[in-house]
Amino acid sequence: MVSEESGPTTTTVRPHTCTHHTLHDQVQQSDPHRLSNLASAFVELDLEQKIDVEIRMREGTTRLLAACRHQTQTLEAAKSLHTSNERMSAYMAELQRRRRAPARTLSQSTPSTARVSVSDLRMPLMWRDTDHFKNKGDHRRFAVFVLTRIGTQILDSTLLCPVDRSLTDLTYPDVHVFNNVPTDFELRLEIWGHVMQDDMSIASTPHKIKRSIHSSISRTVGKKLAASLRDELNTGRIGPNFELMASAHLSLDDVGDSVHTHDLQLENVEPRSHQLPLFGHFCCRLAAQPDCVSREAYSGNALLLESSGVWTQMHGALQAFRLDLWRSLNDKEAAKKPAKTVTVDRDTLIQPGKSGSREILISNVIEGCDNVVILKAGSAEEQHKWIRNLTQHSKDHLRWKQAALEKMEIQSPGSNRNFVRQLRQGSLYDETPLIESVQTEFANHRPTVQDIFGLTPASSLSSCASSSSSPTFRERSHSNSKPRPNSGTIRSHWPFSRNNHD
């Protein structure tokens, strides 16, 4: 009931919230079977709309892929087409599953879902030492991206291209966020790769073959070959084909606030030359934040039994596994400190009071002693709602395990999605100091490989040494051996130095 003093202001405050509570009350009073059928209809309509969107996306991407002339555009369009096909298949499978499953009635209490994020994704590559350091041997180049999926939610990462022997690992800056995730979720991570054959002499595209048909073979055979190529393009095999290189499965047990290492299951890719040289492990940060932590699970009015034995009117809000009590709703909206806070977690005991008393007993063990807080609802129905939501909140704290014990930050998804690979930030080899004490131009820091050889983070030692414009190590050694003013002593720490006996 609104008082006359606050009536003129409360009529314009949060109209959307008032509408939400009105619909919520109607839902609580409706037939559960009718609500279940209505919810299923909404879910099916949503899935059908998503399928329709992916169909239009696929048609547009196919036309774009056929018109692409640059390699980076072609690879990005092929990745988008592959992701759209995966989403459409997931939507159709879920739609069929829901139509075959029997109708279920809605339970009185709904378990809390959560937001789950995947970030700091990194996968080491296993090149031979001659491939990476001497820049010879393995000539393969890949285009690689990652798909993460929970249920029908499928998210794709940035396309790294090209991935060759100069890279020691795959690092993705993307943050994938999933909404409304249940506790029994299974996150599937998939690594999709494509071998780029454009730099090999045996490779050729259908367009190049088609342009050379009339000059190399007879007209009759040329027509047949052109027809087969045209059929191949029309059957959906247009553009680069990405293959599943490896996959992994993560669950609630893998959730944590820091980066952890997990196992990769390598797939059998034929031919073996198309297999990305993965090490068999990857690391990422898998974080989860229950929705009952980020927003209110329930709120309402109740009487609190003070230590003096007086009942005091309170407004309570259930969130983040605690019950905050204010003297009034205005104090809560003014962001004032709660008058009392009661813990509601997996160890909390919630039970009704004596029959007909409308009391709610919330019991916690504090320093070995039972601490009981007694609330009284305005009616038997409100008492039932309070007990139901308090009990569900306590169960959610147990069901979400580590995600409920510590609050994990859910990062916002980034908007930086580049087609080309980012420059390498440097490896352990590049950052290893070679000279211990120098008082010339390296007086403030110990020089690294990059400092001595004049390398950039994106270049390799061998490629710089093989360049005709760059001086060799012997030339740099002679130039460094010339007397300089205020020059200090330089002590070599090369492992093969004859003068190094340290």
Coarse morphology: elongated
Secondary-structure content class: alpha+beta
Strand order of the largest sheet: 15-14-13-12-18-17-16
Q: Supply the number of helical segments.
A: 14
CATH-wise, what's the superfamily of the domain at 35-100 and 112-198 and 226-292? C2 domain
The mean pLDDT is 75
Strand content: 15-25%
So, CATH architecture of the domain at 35-100 and 112-198 and 226-292?
Sandwich
Structure description:
This protein has 502 residues and is of the alpha+beta class. Helix content is 33%, strand content 23%. A seven-stranded antiparallel beta sheet has the order 15-14-13-12-18-17-16. Strands 2, 3, 4, 7, 8 and 10 form a six-stranded antiparallel beta sheet that branches. Strands 1, 5, 6, 9 and 11 form a five-stranded antiparallel beta sheet that branches. A hairpin with a 2-residue loop joins strand 17 and strand 18 (369-376).
Please supply descriptive tags for the structure shown above.
about 500 residues; alpha+beta; Immunoglobulin-like; PH-domain like; seven-stranded antiparallel beta sheet; six-stranded antiparallel beta sheet; about 35% helix; disordered C terminus; HR1_rho-bd; AHD; Rhotekin-like isoform X3
What is the compact description of this entry?
The protein is an alpha+beta fold and 502 residues long. It has helices at residues 7-10, 15-29, 32-67, 71-100, 129-132, 206-216, 219-234, 291-294, 329-333, 380-399, 402-405, 449-453, 461-465, 473-481; strands at residues 114-124, 142-150, 153-156, 160-163, 169-172, 176-181, 187-195, 243-250, 260-263, 265-266, 281-290, 298-305, 311-319, 322-326, 340-343, 349-352, 359-366, 369-376. The model is unreliable at 1-30, 198-218, 228-236, 415-440 and 457-502 (pLDDT under 50).
